[in-house]
Amino acid sequence: ERAREILERTKERETNKLGIEAMDLLDAYGIPTPDGAIVSDKQAAVDAAKEIEGNVVMKIVSPDILHKSDIGGVEVNVPVEEVASTYDDIISRARNYQPDANILGVQVQEMADLDAGTETIVGMNRDPQFGPLVMFGLGGIFVEVLEDATFRVAPVSEGEASEMIDEIDSAPLLRGARGRDPVDEDGVVETIQRISQLVTDFPQILELDINPLVATPDGVEAVDIRATID
Ligand code: ADP
Ligand code: MG
Question: For residue 111, which atom of ligand 1 is closest to its CA?
Answer without folding.
Answer: 24
